[in-house]
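Q: Fold this one first, please.
A: Sequence and structure below.
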Amino acid sequence: MTDLLHVLPDFPTRLYTHLIPSLEKNSVTTSDLLTLDPLDIAKRAQLPLLDVRRLANHVLTTLQLQLGLEISDDSRRQYGETLETVKGASLRKTGVEIANQWSTISTLDEALDGALGGGVPTGYITEFTGESGAGKTQFLLSLLLSTQLPPPHGLSRPTVYISTEHPLPTLRLTQILHLNPILSSSSQDQEPSLANIFTLQTPDLESQDHILTYQLPVLLSRHNPGLVVIDSIAANFRAERSDAGVNNGAAMGARSAQLVKLGAQLRNMARTYDCAI
């Protein structure tokens, strides 16, 4: 439950102080509350079933209200004033309407931009997955440069590259800059530069947590980068599990909780600073 206030910052945890310590001790996440049977959670944390069910329903209702979904009159009566501070949004828009509202970073490929609704959107987290050697890093390097272009291709903003495995491949960046027709045809005053890419190295999970929690928000507020690339987000989690030789259910549960918390943290930063992560 350590991730609850990251997922729902307005949630009234004071009403459930008798439950949360036991839920935290047993690695119960907000995702667990929303997806698992309350009976299983109650047994796992040794808590009263009715209290766990009430908490799960309260979390679900708060999340629905935050997303702009309709909630029942019974829920409004049951949770009353605790819902008044929840900041609602609206999901009742078409994909075209949503895409027209966001700023995007071009992938420098017209077909791919069209499929993505203009490119990689700011204010959101975008995950790129694929087999080793599929070209994920190459693709992200091109985004580090295209973000620096003026609209409609970019945002005219610097970028951040956070590496968990290898340092920034400057040679490959230089090759992309010179060989890509859109980048190479930019005027001198608008040409992307490696000097506009801030780099951070996170060799282990402890340094990664420190950088993402403390250093990255400061960098975002001071320099207003339009893109943050983390290559790759799960590498240090895999390395830590491998070094510890742990592969049991409890360890996997703790790792999942950490990733959920990290995802919520990055999502909030993307929204606050209107950047793509």
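Q: Good. Now the second chain.
A: Here it is, same layout.
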Amino acid sequence: MPGLGGRTSLPPERMTPVRVRGKRGQRARQRALREQRALQEQRAQHATNGQPAVVSPDSAVKPTSSKLECLPTEILESIFLYSQNFALPSVSLTLCRALASPHLKHLTLCSFLTVSDDESSNLGRIQSQLLRCRWMDLAMLRRAQKDHKLSTLRYGCEVPTKVLHGPWTNDKIEMLRLLKKLRAKLDWETSNNGEVADQSLKEAIIQGNAPMVDLLLNRWEPYPNIYTCIVPVTQEHLRLAILQGGCRRNIIDDILHAGRVQRDLPDLHLGDSDIVDWAIEKKAHGDERGSWLLDLVSAEGTCT
């Protein structure tokens, strides 16, 4: 039948429905937002009640093992030793459990820490990586020294960061002492270990931790007469020991001794004006530290 403008109108059953874009998508987005708000409210309610949020099993992500983790333990141990990648156990809990046997640790010590020859130029670097492992503690190092006749570490082996900072324990102090005896060095060029050790020395001076001060300073070893470098002592260390560290005699003696034997560094000056003023003030109040320090200044002829 004719319609407006002379056009013919189709009956309703023959009309093609027109899709209005966005309506169905909008409804889906609104439904997702409502579900998300409901889930957030549920979690907030559980948190308010002191209960953990409940996650449905369908939404939980199920962990999957990699092909490497599915290998037999014997093959994983061979890969660990051949690759020399001592960080491999930290990749996953599965690898950590598989590579934590005492047998593997024994093989690792024999293979890299207590070898009798030095065919590999990278052996010092490999030993440094081994010392950084969490399981390589004082007990393991002593075992290598006793059972495997470990007498020295290879050139380039570095002191690990874990023994260069607090909190200080007896094991940490003894491990640093043993590493120093085995000729491990401190890397000042390619890592921040030097800065860590220097900061630890300053903290030990202020806290009056005499054993750590002794270990971290430059010292001549009586045998085999090797100059072992840990942290070079400077005028700043001397000032800290006197002005902030309580002027403890044993620490002052260690600092002055290290300053006398170290090479290619400026001499220490007890005649520093702040040090002299501190000593004069303490002596005026009857503090024997002031008199003792002024006697040192006079004996060395550094008073200005």
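Q: Anything worth noting on the second one?
A: The longest helix spans residues 23-48.
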